[in-house]
């Protein structure tokens, strides 16, 4: 399996990236599915780290893609939902209506309502044609990141589906925990000097 790092930008803190690098391959190994870590950068979803599926039939993005419209994925939508109201308003004005990227959203009022609902969810899940996209959030110093998965619907069923949900939540918690432990250690060491 090959790791594709698409951004060496400080968009993702090194310790958070390090924790993700240790845990995301485990997800691919146990599920065989694509997974990525992303965040918002301006009004675009920026993919920081990703691992491709091991299956012949894959729900994946182009390897050349670095940034995309956040409406086009569960993780992008979740990241928009997690923004404070002022920042979200700014991003939505820049992005304009989602159109074909999120056809169920016909008005700004409907979009705000959908994003408000997502804000309270542990997991975002959408089905688009033959593909399901899902995401869960994690935080670093108040900045939201999302773990996203793309799975063909014919595999996103039964035990496999439950395994994906469970692992995504566990991995996001472990990354946050590893990141906070590292920051705590650094604070204690600095305070002792």
What is the helix content?
40-55%
In this structure, how is the largest beta sheet organized? Answer: 7 strands, antiparallel
Uncertain ranges: 1-9, 59-65, 184-193
- Enumerate how many helices there are, as a single number: 5
Radius of gyration: 17 Å
Terminal Cα span: 42 Å
Strand element count: 7
What is the helix/strand order?
A: EHEEEHHHEEEH
| Strand percent estimate | 15-25%
Overall pLDDT: 82
Q: Supply the helix-strand structural class.
A: alpha+beta
Shape type: globular
Commentary on this structure:
The protein is an alpha+beta fold and 193 residues long. The chain has helices spanning 14-31, 74-82, 85-95, 108-119, 158-192, and strands spanning 3-5, 34-41, 44-51, 67-68, 123-128, 131-140, 143-152. Strands 1, 2, 3, 4, 5, 6 and 7 form a 7-stranded antiparallel β-sheet that branches. Strand 6 (131-140) and strand 7 form a beta hairpin. Helix 1 (14-31) runs antiparallel to helix 5 and helix 2 crosses helix 4 (108-119). The model is unreliable at 1-9, 59-65 and 184-193 (pLDDT under 50).
Provide tags for this entry.
193 residues, alpha+beta, disordered N terminus
Would you summarize the structure shown here?
This protein has 193 residues and is of the alpha+beta class. It has five helices and seven strands; from the N terminus they run βαβββαααβββα.
């Amino acid at each position: 399996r090959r790791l594709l790092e698409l951004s060496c930008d400080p968009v993702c803190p090194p310790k958070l990236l390090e924790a993700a690098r240790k845990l995301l391959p485990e997800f691919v190994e146990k599920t065989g599915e694509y997974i990525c870590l992303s965040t918002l950068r301006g009004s675009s979803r920026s993919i920081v780290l990703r691992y491709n599926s091991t299956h012949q039939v894959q729900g994946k993005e182009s390897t050349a893609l670095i940034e995309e419209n956040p409406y086009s994925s569960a993780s992008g939508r979740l990241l928009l939902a997690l923004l404070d109201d002022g920042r979200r308003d700014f991003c939505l004005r820049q992005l304009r209506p989602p159109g074909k990227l999120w056809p169920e959203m016909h008005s700004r009022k409907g979009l705000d309502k959908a994003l408000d609902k997502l804000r309270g969810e542990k997991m975002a899940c959408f089905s688009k044609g033959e593909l399901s996209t899902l995401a869960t959030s994690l935080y670093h110093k108040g900045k939201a990141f999302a773990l996203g998965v793309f799975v063909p619907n014919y595999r996103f069923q039964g035990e496999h589906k439950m395994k994906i949900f469970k692992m995504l939540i566990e991995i996001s918690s472990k990354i946050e925990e590893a990141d906070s432990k590292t920051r705590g250690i650094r604070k204690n060491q600095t305070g002792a000097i």
